[in-house]
Amino acid sequence: MADIQGEPVVLGRINGLFGVRGWVKVYSHTEPRDNILKYNPLLVFYQGRWQQMKLLGGRPQGKGIVLQLEGFEDRDLAAALIGSDIAISHEQLPQLAQDEYYWTDMVGCKVVGGDGTELGELTTLFETGSNDVMVVKGERERLIPFLQPDVVKRVDLSERLIEVDWDPEF
Fold first, then answer.
1. How many other C-beta atoms lie within 10 A of the C-beta of residue 37?
2. Edge to edge, what strands does the sheet with 118-127 contain?
3. Sheet arrangement for strand 2-3
4. Among the three residues 92, 112, 142, which one is the final residue of a domain in this structure?
5. Residue 12 · residue 65 · CB < 8 Å
6. What does the mean pLDDT of the chain come to?
7. Radius of gyration for the alpha carbons in the chain, expressed in angstroms and rounded
8. How much is the pLDDT for 7?
9. Domain, as residue range, for 113
10. Can you tell me the distance from the alpha carbon of 148 to that of 165, in angstroms, rounded to the nearest whole number?
11. What is the number of structural domains in the chain?
């Protein structure tokens, strides 16, 4: 198991045991949820640091995912992994088309109105039934729909800037 440098992209969390051969239950943040199984090796936050671990196998199980990691081939060893985040290095993410963005890359960007009014910093995003929503915290918190090109006019990750058409009073 190797130590990892850099900021990992968290994809899920180990939340239980499955069987007696070291398989663990995982809550996956990926969409669809079994996409977490496409990455190998995985990074696991174990013993206070990110460690690279080889994925030996995995599959959907009920409403979740189960997987087995190298070095944890029995239930007692795998129990130490419960509560650990699972991540990948940013370099493992697939390339995106133009005007597509990973949420993790946008968090921390400054959000400004078309007239240059600073609205705050994007702290998180979440899904709704119809569109994604940015949570922007400045002098107050704003929920701004991530709708391109109607609301979100420009995303410049190199400048860490998102320009929106949004009334600062709303």
1. 19
2. 141-145, 132-137, 118-127, 110-113, 161-164, 152-156
3. 2-3, 49-53, 42-46, 85-88, 9-18, 23-28, 64-69, 55-61
4. 92
5. yes
6. 92
7. 19
8. 83
9. 103-164
10. 10
11. 2
